[in-house]
Amino acid sequence: MFRMLEAGSSDVFWLDAGEAATEGWSFVGTGEPSDLPDDVRLDVDAADDLLPPFLGGWVGWRDYESGAAVAGAPVAASGEGGGASWLRVTRAVAFDHAAGRAWMMSEDGDAETWAAVIAAASDPASASDSASAEYSDGDNAIAIARHDPDDYVALIERCRELIRAGIAYQLCLTTRFTVPGSHDAVSVYERLRNATPAHHGGFVRIRGRSLLSASPEQFLHARGGVIRSRPIKGTRPRSADPQTDAALAAELAVNVKERAENVMIVDLIRNDLSRVCVPGSIRVDGLWIVESYPAVHQLVSTVSGTAAEGTTVGRLLEATFPAGSMTGAPKLSAMTRLHDLEGAPRGVYAGCFGYVGIDGAIDLAMVIRSIVIDADQAVVGAGGGITWGSVAAAEVAEVATKARAPLAALGAEMPALWRSDILN
Prior knowledge:
By secondary structure, the protein is an alpha+beta fold. The chain has ten helices and 21 strands. The chain has helices at residues 2-8, 64-70, 111-122, 149-164, 185-195, 242-254, 256-274, 313-320, 331-342, 392-409; strands spanning 12-16, 25-34, 57-62, 85-96, 101-106, 141-142, 144-145, 170-180, 200-206, 209-215, 218-223, 226-229, 232-237, 283-292, 296-306, 328-329, 352-357, 362-366, 370-373, 377-386, 412-413.
């Protein structure tokens, strides 16, 4: 269905529950470029579980700088056509992976035509081979790094100086890798999802720019008036050896630095949600849970609250975005200092993407483990939370771990200095 729509539509989306998903929902569709309304209310009646969680509305992304500016932090001009980009959905198919059913959505008067298009795309004779070609070793490009490892280590130490001075508790320090040239976004996404499937993957193309994501982090979910966030702080690579892999996960679960980093963001999100939720309704539903994905183990927590009367999507984003897991704490102080430290915009990376429904349903993921493709380049952002207990070599290795899979999907390798023995 996605290949059929992508071939004939300039603006298209696929919110992807992951390869071979057996639960959750995926949404494939098209739309028209549009602003996201701020006045969609979240304090609505209980959701109907017999219907898809998304019943129409908007799909797209919001970049990091747009949110930082609203929060009062200084921002750098991206020069990359940044800002928020949304589609007002006109046609979509919702796939219920648990039930094995699909739902059709369209505008009034278009249902019959859209049903015929879906039927044609569903004909096995029309299915195209979705296998994507692998890059050969000779094809591999070398990504260009915004910082080399020594530069990044120096920035880590400056973060620790700020923490020692009491200016911040934690700073999420990020960098970027660029692969010049044109790229076949659909083939790149197929490689990305094959290598690192995630419950919040996605392909969104708006006005010629494509966001490809294998994000494991749910930033905001709202349904039936309940708002939920699932921050990730703490990462370890996977190992092919089962015993080593289990040891990595076990060490992550009890690591003092990772727990401190995670709980600081949990407290920040509790504070953010308290601005738009009923007093006393904020809950920590899960703390320090290890979740395992093909490339990494992650330390995940869950925070929820009940939307206060009159809460809108605009107020929710103003209270919570950018996400604390991508800023640090306190949020405004961290964003202000990161602007000086990083010295360049993040763009779509560290922002969020997903859907906002006409009924107040929201599912937005963090733009991490992601690729942004323009006409002449592709960019991959990566970073990590710096605390007083951070070890520079480990933080540099974490950046390399996070960037490696998206770059491989582009047929690119890490720069030589990022591939040194200390990182492996």
